[in-house]
Specification:
Blueprint (H helix, E strand, L loop, with lengths): L1 E6 L12 H8 L4 E6 L12 E2 L9 E2 L1 H10 L17 E12 L2 H7 L4 E6 L4 E2 L1 H7 L2 E4 L9 H12 L10 H5 L7 E2 L9 E2 L7 E2 L9 H11 L1 E2 L4
Parallel strand pairs: 1-2, 1-6, 4-7, 5-6, 5-8
Antiparallel strand pairs: 3-4, 9-12, 10-11
Helix pairs in contact: 2-4
Length: 233
């Protein structure tokens, strides 16, 4: 799986991808992540990629031209804006957008079947609508709230998709039994040692006795009881 991120703040991704599961997956070549500075594709000497909106309004808008040039350079589109033959198969381009389709675990599973994903990170007041209309396969929203940019949503997509790729997680059963593995399913609570934790002498926070019983049938019933099914997501 290859991810390409188009952003005006490429360094924001350095720390997140240098630790944990994603870092190990990168070192093992299980995934590949390329971060592209949108300012590199500006057509002016100040590397400006935004401008004021037509019709007035507050804030600045990311221009269509640098995004077009970036996708051209990545060989996703041809000069006429249509998709290249190579990018038509197992490759998708998405704009991180508040008005996009709501992202969930089902979305992650669908994206995990691809070979290459290009994520465009918006900033400021938004992105010229011609990007969404002509240059991408879809828009993704990670929730009904507003962030300062699309970088964190892009990290969410890459993290959630990468862990579904074979070999990225140490234990493949983690994917099968975890929350949202089935539609609306939320895993049961977890406990670990110590079995009794006392913040002070008057308080005892205990692990449920059944989990320490060794009775697998009772433990299974307890897990089923405290798992949740919230219906379709």
């Amino acid at each position: 799986m290859q991810f390409d991120i188009i952003t005006i703040f490429p360094k924001m991704f350095d720390s997140y991808f240098s630790e944990g599961v994603l870092s190990r997956a990168l070192k093992k070549n299980q995934i590949k992540i390329n971060v592209h500075d949108l300012r590199k594709y500006s057509n002016n000497r100040h590397n400006k990629v935004d401008d004021t909106p037509f019709g007035g309004g507050v804030g600045m808008i990311i221009k269509v031209e640098p995004v077009y040039r970036a996708l051209l350079d990545l060989k996703i589109i041809k000069k006429d804006g249509t998709r290249t033959q190579k990018s038509q198969k197992n490759t998708k381009v998405f704009l991180m957008s508040a008005k996009g389709e709501q992202y969930n675990q089902k979305s992650a599973r669908e994206l995990a079947d691809l070979k290459r994903i290009i994520l465009i990170c918006g900033r400021y007041e938004g992105v010229d609508e011609r990007v969404a209309k002509y240059l991408v396969d879809g828009e993704i929203s990670v929730g009904e709230y507003i962030l300062t940019g699309g970088e964190i949503p892009a990290m969410i997509v890459i993290d959630s998709v990468s862990r579904l790729i074979g070999g990225v997680l140490g234990n493949e059963e983690s994917i099968v039994n975890e929350s949202f593995a089935q539609s609306g399913y939320i895993e049961h609570p977890y406990y670990t040692r110590p079995d009794i934790f006392s913040p002070n002498k008057n308080i005892k926070w205990e692990v449920p006795e059944v989990l320490q019983s060794g009775n697998h049938q009772k433990i299974k019933k307890w897990k089923e009881k405290y798992s949740k099914n919230t219906g379709d997501l």
